[in-house]
Amino acid sequence: MDLKFLVVDDSVTMRRIVTNSLKTLGYSAFVEAVDGKDALNKIQADSSINFVITDWNMPNMTGLELTQAIRGNSATEGLPILMVTTRGVKDDILQALQAKVNNYVVKPFTPQVLKEKLDQIISKL
């Protein structure tokens, strides 16, 4: 399956870490967004995006709000979403899962952890 990732994070450094980790895992198609609003615009403009990796804490629109917007739109509700965030408290993880993220990674992470979480999602697609 060819995946085109939308990597959403307000940190340039974090977007680079995620895309470099994805490259290490053999993926090559990426689009980047600086926050949830930017991400929604890119999803609407590029129908080939088929996987979202998002941070939670961002200005303008959080990753949680982005997830809710994606899930609330019939055209995008099936997009796989991986939340990659520093928010590791159980209540935060539950809140994200209730918003229907497909999986959750707490920063900092290794490419191996990212691979495991991606594989879990991809195996269910």
CATH class placement:
Alpha Beta
* Euclidean distance between termini CA atoms: 10 Å
From the alpha carbons, calculate the radius of gyration and give it in angstroms. 13 Å
How many discrete domains? Answer: 1
- pLDDT averaged residue by residue: 96
Strand content: 15-25%
Question: In the CATH scheme, what's the topology name?
Answer: Rossmann fold
Q: Stretches where pLDDT falls below 50 for ≥5 residues?
A: none
The CATH superfamily is Response regulator
CATH architecture term: 3-Layer(aba) Sandwich
Annotation field: number of helices: 5
From the helix content, strand content and strand pairing, which structural class follows? alpha/beta
Number of strands: 5
Describe the main β-sheet briefly: 5 strands, parallel
Helix content range of the residues, please? 40-55%
Order of helices and strands: EHEHEHEHEH
Task: For the largest sheet, list the strands in their spatial order.
Answer: 2-1-3-4-5
Give the overall shape, derived from the CA principal axes: globular
Describe what you observe in this structure.
The protein is α/β, with parallel strands linked by helices. It has a single domain, classed as Response regulator (Rossmann fold, 3-Layer(aba) Sandwich). Helices cover 42% and strands 18% of the residues. It has five helices and five strands. It has helices at 12-24, 36-45, 63-71, 90-98, 111-122; strands at residues 4-8, 29-33, 51-54, 81-85, 103-106. The protein has a five-stranded parallel β-sheet, with helices on both faces. Strand 1, helix 1 (12-24) and strand 2 form a beta-alpha-beta unit. The chain starts with a strand and ends with a helix.
